[in-house]
């Protein structure tokens, strides 16, 4: 226990003042540089216990006129108290006196994160007791005026007591996952999108089955708890976050609140840290480890076991069989930090890169959200996403993580996925013409029996001369073949073969006469618009969201348009060149209105293309 009576002893070495440079450097080479703090030793105040504070908020300004690059920064100034601690749980008691006649409303701030808000009457002495869950080996304390941050204020800090809360081991060990959209759990409305964190239990639980419940200790709706008799997995991952923003939104605090000795903390960041045009999430590679240390020290000091994980591979090929390792600057920093500090580390970036290279450019699509038109109800127009995984990809990544986790921590079991070195030929292959009174007209429904051990199926479509018309893949045993523009064949042959990452089956064949055309020319459309990772809680007056859509080869530049649902007024919020369609596109907009999103584009002849209109829900 640490006791500080500031009326009896000044403890001058614990206090400092913080102020800021008059102006931020602003946007420098595509990266926003916030104001620089100026730290000074506190001069002797009139009263040894007097504690003054103020602050202000400032927006970053737009990069290249794009209002969606604006971030709001909070700067706290005045007196601070700092003591050395462990990154553990403490009970903090501070004794305060309000020297003013006026009632004040204050917020206690620990390590620049808001802890609690309270009021004090004029000339009131108050003892404030608060549990704090530290992620740093220090505790820096100050206050802000909760009613008006710029107005600041002054109180007298009479005493402070800091009690370390001792932790006992949980009856059943927990594996916590702190990561982004590549690991998070998804709901039925997002199927087949999946994160590896939601499938980790498949390899760690003996019967490949789990009791899955919402996480009552999380503020995020898709956070889930996976339970078996001897192990519990808490997937706290949330899309659109970086190592920095996960901390600033108090989500690491939610983990630290329940993290106990002999638990495990899996830490995977880097994807969103690299998004330089989003200043509230961006972390330069050279500053990356400063944030990662908070996760590691949170685990170590609580007696838990941290496990670093390098960011997974994106679908990004240099040649037909070679993909460049994604986010390698962040990966290298993690590997170096792990080596220097003897930490456990899973190189998911390298191993998922090796998997993708093994599959190649075409078959590698089976790992990602690269879905053909009309195959999934949730993505009826298809989707072309180079970052996020469908269930097959998430299952493969979960297998990599589980196997390496077992090797690093042998006490964690690992149940390998059965290996099928041979695959049966798809049986009961049927091709049925479906004739519905819809814009697309007739289409062909292919179906076949599931093949044990198959990860996906390749469907090759040929004409009567055995010439390949198209080749697609499906991760389910149904494929809907919609005729393309101006397509007309008297006879069509379908070949279906089962695949996994080891072998390929013999193909089965079915043929039928195909005397119909596409009634609605989709060549003049922008397909696959999908709004995802919608966040209405993190910023009180804003809705944050990401979009993705399928590239139309004819379009050179796209516009992202927001439409006021009530009055139809349109607002262009972004322009995306063709080469950047596969990149991350994230935005925020005022919450008080209902909004729709529309994508438009133009080709070199000035023809305009449109997506369907999607509502932000």
C-alpha Rg (nearest Å):
28 Å
In terms of structural class, how would the helical and strand content be classed? mainly beta
Please give the number of β-strands. Answer: 41
Distance between the termini: 49 Å
The gross shape turns out to be globular
Uncertain runs:
none
Major β-sheet profile: 11 strands, antiparallel
Mean pLDDT level: 91
Strand content: 35-45%
Put simply, the count of helices is: 7
Helix content: 10-25%
Compose a concise summary of this entry.
The chain contains seven helices and 41 strands.
Task: Based on the model shown, name its key terms.
single chain, 617 residues, mainly beta, 11-stranded antiparallel beta sheet, 7-stranded mixed beta sheet, 7 helices, 12% helix
List the helices and strands and how they pair.
Layout: E1 2-5, E2 15-20, E3 26-28, E4 31-33, E5 37-41, E6 50-59, E7 72-84, E8 89-97, E9 104-110, E10 113-120, E11 125-133, E12 138-145, E13 153-164, E14 174-178, E15 193-194, H1 201-204, E16 211-214, E17 224-227, E18 232-235, H2 243-248, H3 251-256, E19 264-268, H4 288-301, E20 305-309, E21 317-319, E22 322-323, H5 328-340, E23 344-346, H6 348-363, E24 368-371, E25 383-390, H7 391-408, E26 430-435, E27 442-447, E28 456-463, E29 468-474, E30 478-481, E31 489-499, E32 508-514, E33 525-526, E34 530-535, E35 542-548, E36 557-564, E37 570-577, E38 585-590, E39 595-602, E40 608-611, E41 614-615
Parallel strand pairs: 14-18, 14-19, 19-20, 20-23, 33-40
Antiparallel strand pairs: 1-13, 2-5, 2-7, 3-4, 6-7, 6-13, 7-12, 8-11, 8-13, 9-10, 9-12, 15-25, 16-17, 17-18, 21-22, 24-25, 26-27, 27-30, 28-29, 28-31, 31-32, 34-35, 35-38, 36-37, 36-39, 39-40, 39-41
